[in-house]
Amino acid sequence: MHRRRFLRRTGAVAGAGASAGLAGCAGVGGEPGYDVGMLASAFRPTEVTIGVGETVVWENTSARSHTVTAYEGAIPDDAEYFASGGYESEEAAREAWSSDFGGRLESGDRFAHTFEVPGQYGYVCLPHETGGMVGTVVVEE
Predict the structure, then answer these.
(1) For a tag on the chain, would you pick the N or C end, based on fewer CB atoms within 10 A?
(2) To the nearest 10°, the Cα dihedral for 59, 64, 65, 70?
């Protein structure tokens, strides 16, 4: 079971206030301050389940450069697009990566996004897409 789902179901985050929105940053139980780590060619975990209004924090835990880039066709219709570098579309993120490695996260860099619309969100690391570096965020009501 995912840590946040467990905490939500057991009531462990009740009264946590603003820190509940950044559940991964709270460091609950001595865990790292991020939700998804980036290995050499994979996101870990590959799937994260959260509630509406929660924030996912990715951290580059490897020595290689990575991106977090939503697949526009794999997010809910009403959802806000997200990509490291702040690009407003998948095309813009891909162009920026191709031209000057835009959106790149170096070792230790973090990217965070708050999910306001329930559904499934597919995303990718652009430089490692052909190697299968993809992930999913599932947002529940």
Answers:
(1) C
(2) -60
